[in-house]
Amino acid sequence: MTVEFTRRSALGLSGAAAALAGLGLPAWAQARDAITIAFPNDVPTWDPNARVLQGAQSFYKCVFDSPLTQAPDLSPLPNLAKAWRYRDTASLELEIELRGDATFHDGSKVTAEDFRFTFDERPKAPVAAGGRKLDTGFIWRKVKAVTVESPTRAVMQFTEVMPSAVTWLYFMASFVVPKAYIEKVGVDGFAAKPIGSGPYRLAEYQQGARVVLEAFDRHWAGAPKLKRVTIEIVQDPSARVAAIEAGRADLAVDLPIRETQRLGGRPGLVGRIDPIADILIIEVNHVGAFEREEVRLAAHHAIDKRAISKAFYAGKAIPIDVPAAHGTPGYPKEFHVAYDPAQAKALLAKAGVSAGAPAQITFFTTKGVFPNDFEVAQAIAAMWKKVGIVADLQVMELPKYQELLRAGKLPEATMYQWGNTTGDPEMYGGYLLDPKSIFSSYKSPDLGERVAPLLVESDPARRAEGYRELHRYAVEKGYSIPLFQGIKTVAYQKALAYKPYANGWILPQDYALKG
User: Fold this and answer.
1) Minimal CA–CA distance to 444: which of 477, 401, 469, 484?
2) Residues of the chain with CATH 3.10.105.10
3) 453-463 core/surface letters (b: 16 or more CB in 10 A; e: else)
4) Going residue by residue through the chain (515 aa), what tens digit of pLDDT does each one get?
5) Is the CB of residue 195 less than 8 Å from the CB of residue 178?
């Protein structure tokens, strides 16, 4: 599918760029206000409220604006909302004051009606037979109503305390969309030709291949310095390395660690390896051999995380023992799961597993979505085989993962990078472990009993302690197998002024070309 809607001829520009590339000029030399980015994945849809998927957030933040946003150090900042406060001591009414100078790409103003449409009407809208509810329907399920008091003031009213409400206003899928436009063209028309209020408008889209963004010169924060951004969807990490090395790209994202280090040593290039708040985990499902707790625990004890970090991440991927990042409120510092093959074999023996009758499981992984994902999965499968777990390793595309997760049909083990740009513990265990969550793979009533009170706990200290206990309990029962804190690897031309974010966002609106 190719969709084109632009103020000037995208084909003419593409042809000129191709001609210049044929002369061997670096991408940054072709235009002083345009860059090319080699990126590993596409969006699942251009409806930014539909799916919670970390890999798509950088795309959405270019085209759409959320009420709040984050600074590079993850601290919250005003965005479409210039102020917010709870009106009551029970935290059931959240007042949002919108800026009055924001417009959508079609020139219409962003108003409180659009805010209500985004966070109240859309999440509650009925779904046609065979359709799939927006992910925001689950996220904002505690919203009783959003009332509009003026064109720039809205009040969110909750059925019960939602401690993460403000956090979600700068987290995933919380982008304000145009009510009038969607009602005019329909949901499918909006996804085909999206209109947001972000710093870029979508000029060209070739599914699975290319995204072309043009600067929105009427953006409330001012037009970005880079007027045209071409994002090439390149799933193969070696091809992304080749693109930056040959000068066909100005920035390449999620590269193998050693290639990032090598590229950083080449003249004219910079390589960066930065820790982020995302986590790499093995999501567990209560099926097959993993119905036995002993097998799940054995699978965890069999993984030498430090050896994997050293082999594939130059030791820079920090092992984690619970599904949260180090230094965040939900991480229990004193808890540790040892690498212990002997203990793994003993646990398997209790489950009736032996060398002659190994446990057989299916193991899903992505390939090229984050650095060395497939290679890490191969290493884990080899470690499992040594103790008596034979894994059928299969590559999984992100859209397929979403489909199987929602249907409860994931296999015993799925390696996945869980996105949490905020560090809030609810966005770790509160969503990964709650059996009522659309994001959880392991559905267990005992987890639900532990999660439920935390979802309405307003005291920060009790809330953090509760999530630390929840995370520890889940690992002790084998409901989750955490691996590493995430990292972001990039390589870019030295001519590019690049700004890193501690959540891994790639935001060209914050970049410029030097000189």
Assistant:
1) 477
2) 274-487
3) ebbebeeeeeb
4) 333 333 333 323 333 344 334 334 455 455 679 999 999 999 999 999 998 888 899 999 999 999 999 999 889 999 999 999 999 999 999 999 999 999 999 999 999 999 999 999 999 998 776 677 898 999 999 999 999 999 999 999 999 999 999 999 999 999 999 999 999 999 999 999 999 999 999 999 999 999 999 999 999 999 999 999 999 999 999 999 999 999 999 999 999 989 999 999 999 999 999 988 899 999 999 999 999 999 999 999 999 999 999 999 989 899 999 999 998 999 999 999 999 999 999 999 999 998 789 999 999 999 988 888 999 999 999 999 999 999 999 999 888 888 899 899 999 999 999 988 888 999 999 999 999 999 999 999 999 999 999 999 999 999 999 999 999 999 999 999 999 998 899 999 999 999 999 889 999 999 999 97
5) yes
Predicted structure pTM score: 0.81
Query: What tokens were used for 186?
Result: 């329909």
CB 55 within 8 A of CB 45: no
CATH number corresponding to 65-180: 3.90.76.10
Please give the DSSP secondary-structure letter assigned to residue 108: P
- Which CATH code fits 1-63+198-250+495-515? 3.40.190.10
CA distance 38 to 243: 7
Q: Which CATH number fits domain 274-487: 3.40.50.700, 3.40.630.10, 3.10.105.10, 3.30.750.24?
A: 3.10.105.10
**CA-based nearest residue to 38, from 46, 30, 27:** 27
Ranges of CATH 3.90.76.10 domains, the chain: 65-180
